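Hey, resending since the last one bounced:
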Amino acid sequence: MPTVYAIEFRSSGQAYVGCTRGKIGKRMREHRCLLKAGKHTSKLFQESHDRLGPAEMIMKPLETFDDDSVIARRERELSWLRHYAHQGLLLNDSMTSFAPPVGAPALAAKARVRNGYRQSAESNLKRRLAQLGRPKKRKTG
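The structure tokens again:
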């Protein structure tokens, strides 16, 4: 079930709003890891974390709903983004968390060609199977 959540700073009331289909505890650990490394995609959230510290953060589930469509998730998240923005407490850099980063299509096209050659469908399949955790078929004999 999708959950819209806010990561708030206790002292300032400012919040980063997000949405996840998984467990919110795992999502919080992912945010903490990015913040600790200084690599969070939201610069405002990163700056607040660096200034106030991780002890000030608290994750709040704002809304859980049954409709798993992207449109429904986006609509509910946008509603909460507007709620915090209206109060002047939003730490998200933009209102488009579901959108790919700027320049993503160009980076993806560049990644498909490595060392001057395009990877074959067979090598892509092998990589996909390895990432799924399935053993590769080995030639015997």
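Strands lie at 3-9, 15-20, 57-64, 113-114, 117-118.

Sorry for the duplicate.
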